[in-house]
């Protein structure tokens, strides 16, 4: 089932999300709905706050990038990179900072370069509540960092310089007012 995606300006996107346990009601169904929602909006990551739940859950499916020539070298790894992260905790970020042009399903039509470190070490539970500690890099680390920010109440636009923030401010206000056209289901704060 496709759920409406909360737009910039919604208070839930600013809340620090809470941990859940394996008895969280209808967790399997929720995860399934999140994948339907993400795929329906052509996203490669989606965090629970984006569908209105302040819980520490996000999903990632970077397989669509496997066909992108920019990722030719890691196409095989990306093809199968579909994951659920529950109660994730980034333990370490390391390596060189690199810029990537990020976007967000909650902030349609805004894309900006964001600098982040290249490598992360993260602890999380999967959809079966099996605990993992993994190290990720390249675009996989990037998407995880972006989604992880969501469960901390942070949006990619928070990382922009003061000048860039000024430039996108008007666009963000328009989104908060529902004054933007999107081809997927969204819920605006006003
Ligand atoms: Zn996002």
Walkthrough of the structure:
The protein is α+β, with helices and mostly antiparallel strands and 190 residues long. The protein has a single domain (5-180), classed as Peptide deformylase (Peptide Deformylase, Alpha-Beta Complex), CATH 3.90.45.10. The protein is built from four helices and seven strands. It has helices at residues 27-40, 75-79, 138-151, 162-176; strands spanning 5-6, 45-47, 57-61, 82-102, 112-125, 131-136, 186-187. The strands form two sheets. Strands 2-3-4-5-6 form a five-stranded antiparallel sheet, sandwiched between helices. A two-stranded parallel sheet has the order 1-7. A hairpin with a 5-residue loop joins strand 5 and strand 6 (131-136). The longest helix has 15 residues, at 162-176. The mean pLDDT is 97. It binds zinc ion. Zinc ion is lined by residues 104-106, 146, 150. InterPro entries: Peptide_deformylase, Peptide_deformylase_sf. Fe cation binds at residues 104, 146, 150. The active site is at 147. It holds the Pfam family Pep_deformylase. It catalyses: N-terminal N-formyl-L-methionyl-[peptide] + H2O = N-terminal L-methionyl-[peptide] + formate.
């Amino acid at each position: 089932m496709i759920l409406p995606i909360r737009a910039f300006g919604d208070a839930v996107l600013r809340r620090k999300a809470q941990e859940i346990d394996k008895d969280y009601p209808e967790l399997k169904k929720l995860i399934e709905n999140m994948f339907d929602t993400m795929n329906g909006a052509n996203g490669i990551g989606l965090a629970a706050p984006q569908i209105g739940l302040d819980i520490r859950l996000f999903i990632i499916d970077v397989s669509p990038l496997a066909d992108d020539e920019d990722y030719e070298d890691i196409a095989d790894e990306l093809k199968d990179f579909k994951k659920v992260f529950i109660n994730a905790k980034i333990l370490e970020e390391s390596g060189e900072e690199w810029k990537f042009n990020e976007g967000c399903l909650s902030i349609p039509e805004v894309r900006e370069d964001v600098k982040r470190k290249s490598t992360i070490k993260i602890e999380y539970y999967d959809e079966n509540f099996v605990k993992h500690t993994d190290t990720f890099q390249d675009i996989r680390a990037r998407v995880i960092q972006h989604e992880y920010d969501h469960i901390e109440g942070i949006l990619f636009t928070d990382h922009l310089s003061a000048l860039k923030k000024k430039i996108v401010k008007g666009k963000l206000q328009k989104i908060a007012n529902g004054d933007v056209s999107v081809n997927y289901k969204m819920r605006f704060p006003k």
